[in-house]
Specification:
By secondary structure, the protein is an alpha+beta fold. It contains two helices and eight strands; from the N terminus they run E-E-E-E-E-H-E-H-E-E.
Length: 129
């Protein structure tokens, strides 16, 4: 039987809804979509700027991965949810700065009509142990 572990980290980003920060299923870690919220206040965005929001989302992902004993280099698949596709190029510049260009995870970018707390971007991922 596949071992499944639900992970909530006291020192992780504050959750904006009832979910685990991550779920480990076998050798894979499924990380909940992270928002560009302030670490200490999940009701406030870092700013309205897509670059700063993307940086904060990536920092929040790093925090969750680190708490689970992993880093972004272990990301296998990433999904990005973007409210305004006019922000696509600027979001990409920030996003790619967090990865080794020779070892990028597979990725999907999805246009959405809205995100929690009024965010412009949300990112979730699957990582491998």
């Amino acid at each position: 039987m596949l071992n499944i572990e639900h992970m909530v980290f006291a020192d992780g980003p504050q959750r904006v809804a009832p979910f685990s920060h991550a779920v480990r299923a076998g050798d894979y870690l499924f990380v909940t979509g992270q928002m560009p919220t302030l670490r200490e206040d999940n009701t406030k965005l870092v700013s309205g700027d897509i670059e700063e929001q993307t940086h904060q989302v990536m920092r929040n992902l790093q925090d969750v991965l680190s708490a689970a004993g992993l880093g972004l280099e272990r990301a296998v698949s990433v999904r990005i949810y973007l409210v305004n596709f006019g922000d696509y190029a600027r979001m990409n510049r920030v996003y790619e700065s967090y990865f080794d260009p020779a070892r990028l995870p597979c990725r999907t970018c999805i246009g959405v009509t809205g995100l929690a707390v009024g965010a412009s971007v949300e990112i979730d991922l699957i990582a491998a142990y």
